[in-house]
Every structure is written in C-alpha cells, then in structure tokens.
Amino acid sequence: MARAVVTVPARATRGEIVEVKTLAQHPMETGFRRTQTGELIPRDIIRRFTCTYNGTEVYRVELHPAMSANPLIAFSTIAAETGTLAFQWVGDNGYSVTETASISVE
Amino acid sequence: MGTTRREFLILAAISLAVPEAARAQLDPNLAANRKAAFQEALRRIVGDAQVRRGRVKLRLPPLIDNGNSVPLAVAVESPMTQADHVRAIHVLTEKNPLPDVVSVRLGPRAGRATLATRVRLADTQSVTAIAQMSDGSFWSDSAEVVVTLSACLEEGLI
User: Do B99 and B41 contact (CB within 8 A), yes or no?
Assistant: First the structure.
C-alpha cells in the first residue's frame, strides 16, 4: 500500500512557526505518456492534499499532472497548541492516504 | 415570444463570429495554443483583476538537467494576520501540456506563506507564481528555467 512520510518537530514553543515536510509515495502518471505500442497511459495522480491542525484546516493543495512523482510538499504552520496534525492525500482510482503527527507545545 | 429585429441581428453577428474563434482553436501552432491555455488559466484565477509584480518570490534553478523533478519554492511577503494574509498561491507554466501546476489555499494559521515542492517542466520556459491576498489583490513573480531533458517527450514541442 502506498506510503507517506511526514516530518513535524516533536516539540515547539507557543506561537512558533514550524516547518512541515510531507512526502507521498505515488507515480503521478500524467496521462500524456504513451506505451511502446502507442497507447496512452491513463492519468493517475493525487488531486488534493490537506493538512488539519486539531481539526482546523491550515493548508490545502490542489495538485495537477505537472507535479513530480512522489510529491513533496513543504510548508509552515504556527504551533498553536499541543495536538495532532492530520494529513490526507486523495487522488484518482480511489487513492487515499492519511497520516498523523503529534506536536507538543509549551 | 418572437425574435425582434435587434435580437436577430445580434444572434447573426455571434454566429458569424464563432467559426472564427473555432479556427483559432484549431491553430496548428502548438506554442500559440499553449500560450492561449496559459492566458485562459490566468484569467480563471485572477478574473479581471490586475496582477502586480512583487511581494512574491519564486525560486527555481536557472538550469536544470531533468525536467521531471525541478525544485520549486514560493515565498510571499505577508504578515499573515487575520486582517492581512495570503489566501492562495498558484503556479502556472507557459509550455507544459496543461498550464496549471499547483494551487495552494492557506490562511493566517500557516504562519508564513510558503510552498516548497518539485514539479515537472516540459520545456525551457517561464514559470509564474501568483498570490492572492486577503484584500483580493494579486501579486506575481516569474522565473526562466532552461531544461535540457524534457519531462514529457513528445513531438512538435520545441
């Protein structure tokens, strides 16, 4: 099954801006490539990525075929309170992967 | 309800104009079509609003060997407060088969308006990043990238 990796600092001070890095395992087939016999390889990409912090959406990405395989998405968020960051990738052919990371804020 | 003379004349004018537009769509010149697609995507994002240069920083390597994985970073100058923040970041290309690359929705909770990712580039071209602020204004930045190995090798695209 498809895997995803996220990097979130384990602890942070309140109000600090923390870096979040995410990587999902996916070929991101563009739908423009052809096989050796000339048939078009159907599109198969991740369409949407969302990051929620204790239930509040902080970052949402719409992906298009021009994103590289195994899409890397790095962004930042404010460490508001101790809790979990939930990540979700949704794509073609029922692709759906979720991942969580906890952060303790003092 | 019958058609008035005025309505008839307007419809006639439209029906004469449409084949002209259709011919433009069938233009054999791929580059022109892609440029039109880019303009179309741009219009879809900004509407009639004016796009100003500045506040956005798009970082891309000036020369890249492999167009399949080009590191791209966007940073937008903004205090990211409830009153003044970046609402969205869009990245568009001029010569890819589809102009859209990635669109981001964010808010004050992001802390900083940044995005770092890897993209595919079909050709040596200019890449544009557009940011929409909470006050509705649009800001942009462009970068030229020379690609030696294209992401999607296809005929007709030079």
Answer: yes
Which residue range(s) make up the domain with A85? 4-105
CATH homologous superfamily for B5-149? SoxY domain (2.60.40.2470)
Q: What is the rounded CA–CA span in Å between residue B27 and residue B36?
A: 11
Residues B90, B119 contacting (CB under 8 angstroms): no
- Tell me what ipTM this predicted complex has: 0.89
Nearest to B114 among A58, A61, A75 (CB): A75
CA-only gyration radius of chain B, Å = 20
Domain boundaries, chain B: 5-149
Distance CA B60, CA B150 (A): 16
- Give the model confidence (pLDDT) of B92-142 as tens digits: 999 888 999 999 999 999 999 999 999 999 889 999 999 999 999 999 999
Any CB–CB contact under 8 A between A17 and chain B? Answer: yes
Inter-chain CB proximity A17 and B111 less than 8 Å: yes
CA–CA distance, B69 with B65 (Å, rounded to integer) = 9
| A66/B98 Cβ within 8 A | yes
CA distance B95 to B93: 6
Q: CB-side exposure of B42: number of CA atoms within 13 Å?
A: 20
Alpha helices in chain B (DSSP H): 5-25, 30-46
